């Protein structure tokens, strides 16, 4: 008998309490019968429990002599041992071990895993529910969200403050297209303006959708309005690090301040001021500065904070304006002037979106309340379309760019029901003009 003999590779069968190990002799010649679960001792050398069994003498010796221990009460003839500790995925963990199970940590205590009971962002039951149902979209288990709590997901992956009363009371503008303009069934901004619109970036755990969506809409509109003269993507990091009156950075911010900054200070390109690897960039301070030429146009007074990009040109916008919440008006605005910003409400199921036309799924069991959450987010609407639903009905959708990287959703984009204010997507639509001076004209 040696303690090294008891290794997971020796597992021969399982028991409700764990794996049963058999020693060498026992494996070769067969074990004794009738394990007595009430007669047991801790077998420290092997970190195992040793059980009494039938004593069957075979030429003066136990028939199963592998584990032969002395117990003050009686001789234990032990051909079965049970490991002490906890099992998971075929592996034994010692007492006191801690493992992570999604967003919860589990400790092996008294041969059982005891887990914390936090609500996780990735909810496997929700994924299953969505994928089994006929909701028009499918859900996925995203590895980048696995291990986060629901709280953390909402805290780090969104980041737009609820719109201020000022923003909500802005006058609505309507595109100048005549009311009778025929709107196409499908519209995709990147087809109409190839190379002038910008795809989704990844905000990672930086709660700054206020900055990502604003920079992206501004960049698209400057490219479109300048007829392709200025096609650079604009730097969300510039906003996150420098929008000083908006000292939230990666801890949420307001859309009004972001547009204020675009108008008054302007942004350099994304290539000039790229995202920091550690997006907790509020710790870094602002790496860009500018001065006004007296006519409101700003010029950078610092080089780009990287060695590759030389152009530190500053891009500015007009004051933002609110587009009507009327579906047709939003479509006309996008088609005529480019993508728009939409402030939406994100529910827990949205994180799992993979493909299809998103609509919020409510589950109605008693427990479900603690799995639910709702918070403001900002995205970019880039087009629309129509699809035949499962019942043959027409399903209208928006195409929107998120800021969770291109591995999320449909290459970083998602489709969402159109015309029914799904998740408040039509509640507040914002856009702006590029601020191009005469010296910018070709
Ligand atoms: C989800 O993904 C994570 C990480 O990629 C993986 O460890 C986990 O087992 C998956 N969970 C389910 C329920 O598929
Ligand atoms: C950012 O910093 C906060 C507070 O120090 C921390 O809780 C959070 O995890 C950090 N986020 C990232 C992405 O490192
Ligand atoms: C939206 O505006 C269009 C005209 O652009 C109008 O025909 C339609 O009735 C409006 N819809 C609603 C719900 O007000
Ligand atoms: C969209 O829904 C929200 C919340 O229900 C509501 O406050 C808002 O007025 C709605 N907007 C439109 C255009 O229906």
Assign the CATH superfamily of the largest domain.
Answer: Cysteine proteinases
Please, how many domains? Answer: 3
- Can you name the CATH architecture of the largest domain? Alpha-Beta Complex
Number of strands: 24
Tell me the quaternary state: single chain
Number of helical regions:
9
Mean pLDDT: 84
Strand residue content: 25-35%
Query: What is the CATH fold-level name of the largest domain?
Result: Cathepsin B, Chain A
Which class of secondary structure composition applies to the elements?
Answer: alpha+beta
What is the CATH level 1 assignment of the largest domain? Alpha Beta
The whole-angstrom Rg is: 31 Å
Secondary structure: helix percent: 10-25%
Low-confidence stretches: 1-12, 69-77
Subcellular location: Secreted
GO biological process, one term: proteolysis
Protein name: Tubulointerstitial nephritis antigen
Keywords: Disulfide bond, Glycoprotein, Secreted
């Amino acid at each position: 008998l040696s303690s090294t003999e008891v290794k997971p590779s020796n597992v021969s069968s399982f028991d409700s309490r764990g794996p049963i190990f058999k020693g060498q002799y026992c494996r070769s010649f067969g074990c004794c019968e009738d394990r007595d679960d009430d007669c047991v001792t801790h077998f420290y050398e092997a970190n195992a429990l040793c059980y009494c069994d039938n004593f069957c003498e075979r030429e003066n010796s136990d028939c199963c002599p592998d584990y032969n221990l002395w117990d003050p009460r009686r001789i234990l003839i032990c051909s079965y041992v049970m490991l002490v500790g906890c099992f998971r995925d075929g592996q034994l963990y010692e007492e006191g071990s801690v493992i992570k199970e999604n967003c919860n940590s589990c400790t092996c205590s008294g041969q059982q895993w005891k887990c914390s009971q936090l609500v996780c962002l990735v909810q496997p039951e929700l994924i299953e529910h969505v994928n089994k149902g006929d909701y028009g979209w499918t859900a996925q288990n995203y590895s980048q969200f696995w291990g986060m709590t629901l709280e953390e997901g909402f805290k780090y992956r969104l980041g737009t403050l609820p719109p201020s009363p000022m923003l909500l009371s802005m006058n609505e503008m309507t595109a100048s297209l005549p009311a009778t303009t025929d709107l196409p069934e499908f519209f995709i901004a990147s087809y109409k303006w190839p190379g002038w619109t910008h795809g989704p970036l990844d905000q990672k755990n930086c709660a700054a959708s206020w900055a990502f969506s604003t920079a992206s809409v501004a960049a698209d509109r400057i490219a479109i309005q300048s007829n392709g003269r200025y096609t650079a993507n604009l730097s969300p990091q510039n906003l996150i690090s420098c929008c000083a009156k908006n000292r939230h950075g990666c801890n949420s911010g307001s859309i009004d301040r972001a547009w204020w900054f675009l108008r008054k200070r302007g942004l350099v390109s994304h290539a000039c001021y790229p995202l920091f690897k550690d997006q907790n960039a509020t710790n870094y301070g602002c790496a860009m500065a500018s001065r006004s030429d007296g006519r409101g146009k700003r010029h950078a007074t610092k080089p780009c904070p990287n060695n590759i990009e030389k152009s530190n040109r500053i891009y500015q916008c007009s004051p933002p304006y609110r587009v009507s919440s009327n579906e047709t008006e939003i479509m006309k605005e996008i088609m005529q002037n480019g993508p728009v910003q939409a402030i939406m409400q994100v529910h827990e199921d949205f994180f799992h979106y993979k493909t299809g036309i998103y609509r919020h799924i409510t589950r109605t069991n008693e427990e479900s309340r603690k799995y639910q959450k709702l918070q403001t987010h900002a995205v970019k609407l880039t087009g629309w379309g129509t699809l035949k639903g499962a019942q043959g009905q027409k399903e209208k959708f928006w195409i929107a760019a998120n800021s969770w990287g291109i591995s999320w959703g449909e290459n970083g984009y998602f489709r969402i029901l159109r015309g029914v204010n799904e998740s408040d997507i039509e509640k507040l639509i914002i856009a702006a003009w590029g601020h191009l001076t005469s010296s910018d004209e070709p």
